[in-house]
Amino acid sequence: MATTLTATNQEYIPQKWEDVACPFCGAQEAHLIEQFGYEHRYRFVKCEGCGLAYMNPRPAYTDGFVETAYEVYTTSVDSFQKGDELTEQGKIVYQEYSSNLKEIEKWVGRKGRLLEIGCNTGFFCKVAGDLGWVPTGIEISQTMAKLAHDTYGFETRAGDWMGMKFEQLFDVIYCSHVIEHIPNPREWMARFKEVLAPGGVVCLSVPNYQSIDRKFKRGLKNLGLRKDRWEKWRTPDHLYEPCEKSILSFFESCGFELLQQYTYPSEWLGDVSLWHNLMHFKLRWGAKARYYLRPAR
User: Fold this and answer.
1) Where would I find the beta strands (DSSP E) of the chain?
2) Range list for CATH 3.40.50.150 in the chain
3) pLDDT averaged per 10 residues, the chain (length 297)
4) Edge-first strand listing for the sheet containing 53-55
5) What does the alpha-carbon distance between residue 135 and residue 156 come to, in Å, rounded to a whole number?
6) How far apart are CA 269 and CA 263, in angstroms?
7) Side-chain half-sphere exposure of 278, counting CA atoms within 13 A
8) Eight-class DSSP state of 7
9) Which of 82, 109, 198, 291 gets the most CB atoms within 10 Å of its CB?
């Protein structure tokens, strides 16, 4: 990412590095599996305990790092909507989000209060509001939170959600491709429990490190046949990328019950062909993974 350096084409150089244990299980033992980023300066190691692929060492997760990486990471409102009309891309994404929200309603059993952590430019919350949910969006970026609110009008809050107070509990927490960016996932899982209403559900999406695409590209890179195309200003955005084994044991250790899991491609509209069922629901080899969770009783 490193969007604040993009316009001036400056190189992102970590000011401080930190050595970390496995963010999921806390094990110290790990071995190198991949180098990536600009000039391959970052490393993914594989935890000997749970199998998680995580960055170590990694740039220290300071306020400066967060501002550089996330303050203005996208301004894609125009790609979804121009004036009061949806663009062609917006219509596709609207249908995708509608399908996802119908699935969420099936697990929650009702429409109610929805908290999206990492609401980006606000389009998912906009769709949720259109379909009868009461959405609240959280963004680490002041710029992005204001953009979402000004564009779609729903409640947004800027900053670290871990310290925020909420007057009411939420029926669903929606967290799509966000948790892999943060250094303290176990603390987030505990916080999910605190703000969920009875019977509430967490919908959590993450990259799938065991996907066919990742395995193929990783194999080519390890053979020296492929090099990452990373601009020099880009920060390393994923602090870890789970495989199924690592994340399921993590959920269980955090006190969550798994309701459903599957993988999915980009712009999936909810249709399930025989091939999709085999690829994403049976083998779970897709590039993205989605999990529905509820606090264990």
Assistant:
1) 17-18, 30-36, 42-47, 53-55, 58-59, 81-82, 85-86, 113-117, 134-139, 155-158, 170-176, 196-207, 240-241, 256-264, 288-295
2) 79-208+243-297
3) 71 94 98 92 96 97 91 72 86 94 96 96 96 97 92 95 96 98 97 97 97 90 82 93 97 98 86 89 94 95
4) 30-36, 42-47, 53-55, 240-241
5) 9
6) 13
7) 3
8) T
9) 291
Cα 2 to Cα 65: distance, rounded to the nearest angstrom? 8
Whole-prediction pTM: 0.94
Of 3.90.1310.10, 3.40.47.10, 3.40.50.720, 3.40.50.150, which CATH number belongs to 79-208+243-297?
A: 3.40.50.150
Question: Tokens 């929650």 label which residue?
Answer: 108
Structural contact between residues 175 and 117, judged by C-beta atoms closer than 8 angstroms: yes
Q: For residue range 66-90, list pLDDT tens digits in order.
A: 988 888 766 666 778 887 889 998 9
Q: Closest Cα partner for 55 from 64, 63, 67, 46?
A: 46
